[in-house]
Amino acid sequence: MKAPSGGKGRASQWLIVCTATLSVAVVTTGVLVAVQLVRAQAPGLATGARSGAVAGTHSASPFVEAVSHQQAERYRDALEVYEAVLASDPDNIEALYGRGTALLDLGRVDDAEKSLRAALAIDPRHVGAAYTLGTHYLEAGRHSEVIEVVGPASEHALGAADTACLMALAYEGMGDTAMAERYYRRALAYVPDASLALEGLARLGVGP
Fold this sequence. Notes:
Strand content: under 5%
Number of strands: 2
CATH superfamily: Tetratricopeptide repeat domain
Order of helices and strands: HEEHHHHHHHHH
Number of helices: 10
Helix content: 55-70%
Largest sheet: 2 strands, antiparallel
């Protein structure tokens, strides 16, 4: 079943998490039918736990300028900033990542995927790029691609519970309950009260 659209600015919300220490929640309804990114000050990403920045924090211009544009939903302006950085530094991973989020919010899905994959080609464990692309794939029901792009980043200490939950949701969507349980339990090992993981295990009919 295809997930409903989450609305404007969702990709940039994840980038803002990484740069402004906001947080993201992944919300599921039933057995993997909807995924939404929700901005919140206190909860952690998919887990409901408190967390800080998950990927690289940008404290210097031009990234601050780009994120400011994205916060104000000026995605084309943000894209111009990232493109300017990449013109002189084509392998700048944070610019590739930021460009990918801006492109997603502009509806340029193919270009967004290419930019995020370019970032992951440089660093497969970049949590922000992996989580953004993985969530995009999950919404589209592309479960095997979620596992492909999120798997390496799920081994990273930063955001480990959140990426584990995303992996679990993908496996659950594929009907692989054993792997789904494994990743839900991994999330709980990092955050014992991770609500998404607890709900996932309940759907699978197993205890925490």
